Amino acid sequence: MAKPNHAFLAACRREHSSYTPVWLMRQAGRYMEEYRKLRAQYDFLELCKKPDLAAEITITPVERLGVDAAILFADILLVLEPMGVGLEYSKNGGPVIHHPVRSGKDVDNLKDFDPQQELSFVYDAVKKISKTLKNKVPLIGFAGAPFTLASYLIEGGGSRNYVHTKKLFYGTPEAWKRLMERLAKVVAEYLNCQIAAGAEAVQLFDSWAGCLTPTDYEQFVLPYTKAVIDAITPGVPVIHFSTGTAGLLKQIRAAGGDVIGLDWRVNLDEGWGMLGHDVAVQGNLDPVALFASPKDIKARVADVLRRADGRPGHIFNLGHGVLPETPVDHVIAMVDAVHEMSSR
Ligand code: 1CP
């Protein structure tokens, strides 16, 4: 059930609320002792595939930190496994794709699958979480955006320069188009299944879009991200997240989203000004700022809030995920500071 007066959902809709809502990307993860303990017993993919554990990992930080939204514990790369590319997470958690896609033939050899059936463990987790969180905070579902997913499929893991990815769209634009169309279709279906199971908002992670030129983004990425966003169940807010895209904000906005993510490389007021105030924003504290003293954290929170200027439609977050070594008490100090200083 939607909670229409909740601060997080109100901000997604650019409605007023009595304080600025806050949550953190990667709030369920390695900086928390509770997570590390579970992780010592289970492989990462196993955790994702056991709905009881995924639900527990999702809910623990909500209770511990006092944040205004939960984010499903899962990973953007889960949708790649049923395509038959050999997804594995190495000991340190970094993803590896054993059979990367490098040609049109590789694209055509990807397995077709039904996201409703093959990823049912995700929706089971969403159902369990929604039941537990009822009347507390909204649950955010998520998926990788087509470009960021394609970059992992093609590079075989994380990358610095995205050489293979760019070579595919420069050299074989037809194969690129086929790949992006398939990813867009799968991602939209996957997100709509999460919504049907109880997710009240969804975030599309285009974490690595910042490596693109504005022209390449427009030609090779924008149409597919837009297709995903346009296909999302009407009425459910979409957060469009990316990093390093201060020079791409016009294009990111054109691709869509009710809320646009801003990272710390742009001042929040300037970024919001470039996007236009008829869209909500999410961000944008530097994740490394959480290693500063609680006094300094408070000052940096104050600066972000000052730049948001009390306008409706600001969701406080980091500009990217919380880092594994972050002290939990500093995270709590940040959440408390946002609530205290934005209270109105
Ligand atoms: O060892 C471990 O315990 C695994 C670490 C880990 C965790 C906790 C991975 C591997 N994924 C996750 C969970 C995860 N991933 C969530 C859970 C919800 C949350 O608390 O936010 C989410 C939303 C993601 C999304 C994700 N996975 C993104 C987009 C966000 C971002 O950080 O940019 C990306 C790029 C991934 C790929 C991925 N999966 C895991 C890692 C370490 C990575 C990044 C690797 C890289 O830098 O290329």
Could you describe the 3D structure shown?
The chain has 344 residues and is an alpha/beta fold. It has one domain (6-342): TIM Barrel, CATH 3.20.20.210. The protein is built from 16 helices and nine strands. It has helices at 7-12, 33-41, 44-49, 51-65, 104-109, 115-118, 120-133, 146-155, 163-171, 173-197, 214-220, 222-230, 249-255, 268-275, 294-308, 328-342; strands at 70-71, 87-89, 95-97, 139-144, 201-206, 238-242, 259-261, 280-285, 314-318. The strands form two sheets. Strands 1-4-5-6-7-8-9 form a seven-stranded parallel β-sheet. Strands 2-3 form a two-stranded antiparallel sheet. α13 links the parallel β6 and β7 (259-261). The longest helix is centred in the middle third of the chain and has 25 residues, at 173-197. It starts with 6 loop residues before the first helix and ends with a helix. It binds coproporphyrinogen I. Coproporphyrinogen I (1CP) binds next to loops. Residues 25-30, 39, 44, 71, 73-77, 89, 93-95, 142, 158, 205, 207, 321 line the site of coproporphyrinogen I (1CP).
